[in-house]
């Protein structure tokens, strides 16, 4: 049952597929006469199928018409492969032979299938040739002598059947006419046409017969067909006149039709005939027999009992061979005229035939095996499969299918015809042969099936490139190898076969010179001596190419590493090294780097450096190869050092190299300029009003202990103020930057008279940063020095005056105009009240805590005015007429050198440092190259101050410290005549650093021997001999001086 159900499903699939494939399958009918000679044109298949291809269409192969013949068939027609022209062959078409097995068939067809290739335009065309009959056969009687017995008392016009002739031709070429030749008057001939179109001759009695007069008549009967020309044949007709038998047998049924299964066993009853005879005795005895008009094959399959009339099966029946048998049975009672009955035996079908499978190959096959390329595309047609079943009805319905695990499939094209084609890509390397099982099953119960095998061998194509087992080959070889050294045998595999699998090895285009590979064995060798120091790594490709008609190739990368040998000594970058170091280089600072290389690698390139002579003075870092001093330098004591450095590598045995090292000690800009002239900041020079412009009124002179550019000095005036007036000077004086000569620039007028204060800056040209110093020059412009006390008072005011503005607003000089005196006298009363209020408010503001000022953001210029104690001291100083000995540019207090004198009083004052002075005159110093005790960006305002005044020597004494506040920094001054500034910009101050080489927050110590104690407070004095610096970030600075 499962098999039957499966067959039903497959049949349904076939029907659906036939609908789908109708557009790919076509039929074409042609008519051809039989017996045509060779090369008679029948038709043009390409034209008749309307195969007009697009000229631009690309086909895998040219258009081809390929007939598909059954194995063993003799081709009766020929189809030209290129043109589709159809011709006859040398095998003549014989309609009678071709259609001999078809019973009562008037139309004869010859069928072939033609495949239209290639696959892009594939179609299967079934061609049916209708074979037209030609009169190539003459009608023949079954026997050359025909015997007929007629009773003597036969009535006139009685008809007796004459055995018919047979003509295999049909239609008009078949039997058309019978006639008697050499006839007698007693008999005539008539022809009866059956419903099937057969013509039966009948003998007619035309005269009374008398056996006693003549008992035998001999005539000749002629049969003729309708061909042009007609064909005919004759036979002897012998009529015997028999004695009288009045009644002949009569069949109960003169025509009888029965059905007999084809599997009826021998002896099976087919039909029972019944006949009666009115005579008596021996004349009534009936004998049944078959007529001579039935075929010999029918006589072989059936037998009839002469007495009973029972027809039985004599031999096995086969509906597929003869589905219908016509039996002509004669019943005779011994008379000359037997009775006739026709029995039609229909052989009914049983499922006794297994389906047959007919395979017609589209692709040529050799010894029953199809050779198919592995590059065959999908849907490539292989064979036309025709399945048939001789059974009828459902028993003759056949389903066809193939194995499901092969890359092939069956596609229906016509009823019971299928195309075997590829269904998936083929791969020779995976499967080289296929045995495809084709199964055909009918719909009988139980179903019968059969199978056939299609053998397909896959033809190898060069579709596989050689394959290397790994994508990259790593090799190594020691340098200095012998030439022709074999490195490795390179092998690749190719899944193809035959020539397609033969591999040839070559080097790629990127292979360097000196490498070789054997084309057949793949042995890679190097033909030169390798030097790792010239090239350590080699990378190139090796190509494996197969020997196919269209060769394929693949590459593998060879990476060769040349192993190092200790064949190179260490190499210094220079045979001799010269280093230049500053004399202030700290202990263990960096002198220089010794660079040494070794062309070898690994341990052979590990270099150890050592100093041969000079180990006490220098050492070399084993990691960085940096030379460091083990001593401090002094250029004045020793200006250069020379020693040898040894380099040893780590090879076995090790190799050694030497280099000479010379270290030169160079000078650094570590000394700031020192003013020699003027000797005191309290000195002054008289400039008479009659001095001509261009005259040198005075000069300044400074020295620098450095050398070279570090000792070359330039002078400049950075500020000038007329102490005795309220207005700024008009550029009356100028200074020569090289000589320090100060000259008068313009003619002196009355407004220019008074004490002029010039701030002189001297700076060196040191690199990378210059150092500078500041000195004060006082020029008294007047005709004479009439009042020395007045001048000293103005000098004191100058020292108290900030460097960026004029002070003396409350003092009226002797040179003031009379108009000013009158105005002052008029408003004296009013000013007194205002002054009292102003002073009171000023005092209160000065007493405000410093942190409030900071909170208001006034960090750039808030300085405290002198207190009441300082004012009292100022009055006392006026009485004593003593000149100050020192200058302070921050809040400092200067006392006389007689600290034990109870009569000594302090004189207080302030000086404001202008912004221009801060920005333009403050030098910078590179602290990264020269170790020093100076803090960068902090001014140093005093160094080596000496007084030339006849006044007593003063000493600096600190006042009581107050709470630290921002910008209120105490600076000590030296007891000489020079202000020295070591920083260009002001920064925050801090004196907590103990490292003399570090950069503290503000340690502008100026290189003094003893660092000054810096205390931040509002008003503080430090006692000598400490030296201090000025630090701060304000834009305007006020300096308090206590004298």
Automatic annotation (TrEMBL):
One of its GO terms (molecular function) is calcium ion binding. Keywords: Calcium, Cell adhesion, Cell membrane, Glycoprotein, Membrane, Repeat, Signal, Transmembrane, Transmembrane helix. The chain crosses the membrane at residues 819-843. It is a single-pass type I membrane protein. It comes from the Eukaryota. It is found in: Cell membrane. Pfam families: Cadherin, Cadherin_2, Protocadherin. GO terms for cellular component: plasma membrane. Residues 850-884 are annotated as: Disordered. This is Protocadherin-11 X-linked. Residues 873-884 have a biased composition (Basic residues). Its main location: membrane. The keyword Amino-acid biosynthesis does not apply. The lineage of its organism: Eukaryota, Metazoa, Chordata, Craniata, Vertebrata. PROSITE patterns: CADHERIN_1, CADHERIN_2, PROKAR_LIPOPROTEIN.
